[in-house]
Amino acid sequence: MVVEVGYAQAWDPEARLPWRPVSVGEARERDAAGLPYVVVYRAAGREAPLEVRLVSWRDHYVGLWVYDAQGRRTHEVDMRLLDDPTRLLRRHTVRWTYAGPETAERDEACPRVTVELFPDGRGRRTEELRGRGGGAYVTVPEVPEEERWTDRPAFGEWPLFSARVHGLAEPLRFETAGADGDGSGLAPATCWRPPRPARPGPISELFRPGVRVTDGYHPEMTVVEPRRIGTVRVPSGLLAVSGPDSDDAGPHITVPVPPGEYVLEEAQVRHTYHCEWRGSRVTRTDTTAVRVRVADLPAASWEMASRPDDDPRLLPEDGVFGFDTDGATGCFADAGAWEQLLTLFERGLIQGDPALGPDEYADINDSMYLLRTRDRVSGGELVAFATTGDGTCPVWVGRSEAGEVVGVVVLVAGTPELLQGSQRLPVTCVGPFGPAPV
């Protein structure tokens, strides 16, 4: 059987077509330089591709999409190049089962199986039975080491991974397709791109009165003056940002700052909407973010805080590092007195210990900030705040032109977008593989 192999700079999954076809020589050059490119495998008489391989070595990524005869993705494999340059981790695999030829690609009603693997041997298998009334089974996958990793072939020597899926048992002969096509213009917005971690969005603008934003639900919201809610003392010089309900031995995230006392703020927006319950228009003011203001300087860049063992090469599209919470609660605290402050938090909030004095535990009213605890010995403090849900909350660190920490922010209501006409401050997002303008 003859399999035609074509190369291109990108792949448009909506049109199911390559964008800007390139010659095998140019593809080889892009491979050596680490630039993104795609490889499309087709069989004669079959409109849909057999599979599409998506490569970007500079992003430590190789993807594989397998298509059925109707042009629907049946398998997606996400492979990552880590410390060993000779092999790839099968980081994430998804398999869809379609009820019939008329079912749309990746339809929400389709049963699917997702397997996530990590280099340390951990993993998770999720079987979603959406087509059978819903529900999901989560188990630990039993994946041998030799299947967890894939050898990295040289350019042009990749096997057809989907041969078994398509039942292609006979010997295969590969022929290179021509590179004819229009190479002009910009790539369509629907084209594949290497997965990128979440970006900070307009964080600085959320603290600048007059800026107009939207959260996708409310068409227009206007930023008002940030609200100051006291201070937090960090005598140890190490600011902890964590979920106080954590089972870990210490805080999830720590950020070095000069020892001192820092202002706590809420970023707020005002918006008007029609209230069906009142039968009239209502104006509300809501909190979008909480901040520890470390210095009175503008942030020239924003970076996502992480722990020493967090590996950005493992993150999916819009993936985040941060602190985990099962109680929709986070906190800013002095990491040097973490254990003592956490004990006071549990005694006050959970146990309701009447022996605690107001200098050790105090509630905060009418704010996203909930309560404060203070360690009498060190003077360190913990201030808890509410988030709008459970899960992992990213922590954004703002830095000045000189690289000094000027603020630490947690978005408590998602990442809003600027509305047209609102001015964006010139800042840089410091990503895992270098700075990028935002």
Overview of the molecule:
The protein is mainly beta. 6% of the residues lie in helices and 42% in strands. The chain folds into 2 domains: 2-176, no CATH class; 204-437, no CATH class. The mean pLDDT is 91. It has helices at residues 24-33, 145-148, 338-350, and strands at residues 2-12, 17-22, 37-43, 51-56, 61-67, 73-81, 87-96, 112-117, 123-128, 136-139, 149-151, 173-176, 212-214, 221-223, 227-234, 238-242, 253-256, 260-275, 280-293, 301-304, 323-325, 329-334, 361-363, 369-374, 381-386, 391-393, 396-399, 405-411, 417-418, 428-431, 434-437. It is elongated, with a radius of gyration of 26 Å. This is DUF4241 domain-containing protein. InterPro entries: DUF4241. Residues 178-204 are annotated as: Disordered.
The profile of the biggest β sheet is:
12 strands, mixed
Low-confidence parts lasting 5 or more residues at pLDDT below 50? none
Number of beta-strand segments = 31
CA gyration radius, whole angstroms: 26 Å
- Structural class assignment: mainly beta
Helical residues, percent: under 10%
Mean pLDDT: 91
How far is the first residue's CA from the last residue's CA?
Answer: 48 Å
Number of helices: 3
What is the molecular shape? elongated
- State the domain count: 2
| Assembly state of the chains shown | single chain
Q: Provide the β-strand percentage band.
A: 35-45%
